Amino acid sequence: xxxxxxxxxxxxxxxxxxxxxxxxxxxxxxxxxxxxxxxxxxxxxxxxxxxxxxxxxxxxxxxxxxxxxx
Amino acid sequence: xxxxxxxxxxxxxxxxxxxxxxxxxxxxxxxxxxxxxxxxxxxxxxxxxxxxxxxxxxxxxxxxxxxxxxxxxxxxxxxxxxxxxxxxxxxxxxxxxxxxxxxxxxxxxxxxxxxxxxxxxxxxxxxxxxxxxxxxxxxxxxxxxxxxxxxxxxxxxxxxxxxxxxxxxxxxxxxxxxxxxxxxxxxxxxxxxxxxxxxxxxxxxxxxxxxxxxxxxxxxxxxxxxxxxxxxxxxxxxxxxxxxxxxxxxxxxxxxxxxxxxxxxxxxxxxxxxxxxxxxxxxxxxxxxxxxxxxxxxxxxxxxxxxxxxxxxxxxxxxxxxxxxxxxxxxxxxxxxxxxxxxxxxxxxxxxxxxxxxxxxxxxxxxxxxxxxxxxxxxxxxxxxx
Lengths: 70, 386
Hints:
Number of helices of chain B: 9
Number of strands of chain B: 18
Structural class of chain B: alpha+beta
Number of helices of chain A: 4
Strand content of chain A: under 5%
Number of strands of chain A: 0
Number of domains of chain B: 2
Largest sheet of chain A: none
Structural class of chain A: mainly alpha
CATH class of the largest domain in chain B: Alpha Beta
Helix content of chain B: 10-25%
Mean pLDDT of chain A: 95
Mean pLDDT of chain B: 96
Shape of chain A: flat
Low-confidence stretches of chain B: none
Oligomer: heterodimer
CATH architecture of the largest domain in chain B: Alpha-Beta Complex
Strand content of chain B: 25-35%
Helix content of chain A: over 70%
Radius of gyration of chain B: 23 Å
């Protein structure tokens, strides 16, 4: 997780949205509880939405499935 | 708030007897704020040109009289104007001109909006990882859109939202130039420039709409476009300007000219017109090119003129274009000393607004009459609301 944090900080500093989508999705997969997972999924989704990235659709679907997004 | 009152009683008199607007309308911050509402926010004012956002997703933040706006071309190609703020905490959304790839994300709490202004995401609004809340109705919280309309590539906005429909408000001037209702192609980077002028925006209108000054301020025109070749254009309550009967096309060393706008009619072979569309847009049209000047009021005594040149075809000759840009830049720069000189003149305490030549100053008087009528209407409404 520490490695993931470091990669996230690097991606934030570089404003590398594609990397941020990937890293937050990875964090969501590795989280132990649903709230934490949806927290990270939300970030992945927002960055995908901003970038117009195709991953947005799937990330949105996951959040909707958990009752976290409209 | 103290009511701002200047004496406009003689401004609306006939041109033979009228005085111009009092000094305060050019130098007083309170009157500037009053006119912001009465003349600019309540009307269809020029903000920018559609060519500023040529591609879908192009976004340009701008200020109009202190109001943060976002000029945007949505994903379907429609130009829109929004207030450049998030509906959550009022944060500025877009700081620099850029391409919106997907959604507009507020940099503060990441609420996201589509290029049509719809609120599409509200991260953590119901708590961490919970992105909805029953109190936050996304359909009610889209970006605040400013009423806008594109005509002659100018993006016109009505901030108050209650002006008549654009086509209704501008019906007469649109009819006057109906023959030029054709595609306009912005000449590109070499066909736009700005002039920052130390003057009230109204003096730029007043100088533009009359031909009286041409032989004195633009002596280069005397060789082919004499004062007697010009005529006044006056439409009370709407616009004024001047026309010429001897427009001569620009040529290069090979005798080449710009292509004409198709089928505009023989009337326009040597005729050209220059119209100030109130409040702040100055338009010119000729058989082979057109221009738009948007006056951006920056304060009572400061204006930025945004000048854009247009052609009948998308790929016009670059050399000719640059020559034409330089020609017009020279003309407009020749006007700077007079609009700045008149501005400084407005600090002469005993100036009474001046008098008009009944023969030559009709277009300027037409503008003053419009200003006075709108200010009086605004004051009457303010008084009724007390």
